[in-house]
């Protein structure tokens, strides 16, 4: 959602903050703004639109030299993406500046209270009320900004990360968090606050996780963390394992393209250290073997692309372990009274670890007594912190809004877990597990092969750049691949796209087929000429017979589909369950190329944000 940066130190705060915002812009790009503390005043610059617009403002109207500042990049919730609604918001006396990520649910009541007290509000945001409340709380807090923040936070409902600065307090920045991310970067004579470590990774790799309902006061030489009542809080300090280069484009035109090409390494990194002598060792998994043996049902919950990874996981978990597995959209999960107990294992999959729908689903599961395993890419984020156990995906930072390497690594992580689960429960033979592990270990190479042969896919995007709709069909694990291919195209190329289970086509969607409509078909491996494969070949013919154009993704030696393919895309041979790791990649490239051809911003598609921290 929104991106937040705070800085105190001896560098020019505006430079540090704006560069941090650049790295956080994936979180929201409706507006951007900074507040710099200098000479007993706040220099506030803000502008609707992308960060480039704020840079223009700063070029024409620079802020004074200062080592204290805060900055924000916005994904609009309350109030449109205008200059007036851009953060920071400032108190009436011009002394307190505040930036915010999240939603203050009781803002209407607080706003009414302020209006009744004669306060003049200048924006439609929920955030502005905090600026006025902080200014009002300061006298009773003896002018202590952190104490004023604690007092205000106790009155707020909802999800929020807040960061404040005061005109008369150079060298002080105060932050607070409830349900939204905020990380401290510990520097040498300087300190940082940000929604994501990417904002300060160029300056320090020492990070501190802030817990739920905590307030932090940052000074150049001191970091003080308390709870909302002023009691000192326990924090977890850690080293970030990647560096600034990982958060740059590295010669690619877009982050998405870079991240697509990083997939072989990301998949390998997710496996790294987890396979020893043909067996899986998940030392980091905090569940005992006994606990795992007592699990009688698994529910996977996630959103968007992570949900699609969950759909793939269901096939593997049930096939390998014979434990029933359901997959549920996190936004639906807790509202349908799901049947959960202490023998249910809930797996929450999330790249960012901050998705509010998923977080709320996991909290609900814990309340019902279930254990929760997080599969997550972001170290120190809320979802793994609140789960009973975590498996990190080690994909490295994913900056493009459209998720790519996170998807592949989520699938790999779930497979690693499923095989480990099968190993612990003893319902798989050791040789069988070893054989499967060896196949998974081969996947980075196969993904690499796909990337070496993507040129024809680019050409296909050119052929269909004017299509008004694109369909994707698949069976078994090919079905979630079809859903993912369609999602990619919708979110970055703004094209109508739908993914279907191929067998469902005849139950309705077949009516959409018309002359020239491009239909991607994910064909399962022909190994042993499986029923699945034969059925899929029939489905291709059904599509072709109605004049639609078939773009067939099939194994390198599968010639049985040639007669029915208008275009053929070859993918390396692998077992059915592993096929999503190679079949998804051409669809990602297709969407990326399509968005580029149609002139859209590949990394920052309209209306979207990388991590969705509101429900
Ligand atoms: O960070 P998460 O994995 O929890 O995010 C879930 C979805 O918001 C995310 O996958 C979204 O659908 C992506 N934009 C898809 O490319």
Question: What features would you describe in this structure?
Answer:
With 615 residues, the chain is α/β, with parallel strands linked by helices. The protein has three domains: 3-247, 4-Layer Sandwich (Glutamine Phosphoribosylpyrophosphate, subunit 1, domain 1); 255-441, 3-Layer(aba) Sandwich (Rossmann fold), CATH 3.40.50.10490; 455-597, Rossmann fold (3-Layer(aba) Sandwich). The strands form five sheets. Strands 3-2-4-1-10-9-11-14 form an eight-stranded antiparallel sheet, with helices on one face. Strand 24, helix 18 and strand 25 form a beta-alpha-beta unit. Helix 9 runs parallel beside helix 13 (405-425) and helix 16 crosses helix 19. 5-amino-5-deoxy-1-O-phosphono-D-mannitol is lined by residues 303-306, 350-352, 355, 358, 401-403, 487, 491, 611-612.
Offer a quick outline of the entry.
The protein contains 19 helices and 26 strands.
| CATH class value of the largest domain | Alpha Beta
Strand order of the largest sheet: 3-2-4-1-10-9-11-14
What is Rg? Answer: 25 Å
Low-confidence stretches: none
Q: Largest beta sheet, briefly?
A: 8 strands, antiparallel
Q: In total, how many beta strands?
A: 26
Q: Name the CATH homologous superfamily of the largest domain.
A: Aminohydrolase, N-terminal nucleophile (Ntn) domain
Bound chemical compounds: 5-amino-5-deoxy-1-O-phosphono-D-mannitol
| End-to-end separation | 11 Å
Structural class: alpha/beta
Give me the number of helical elements. 19
Question: How many separate domains?
Answer: 3
Shape: globular
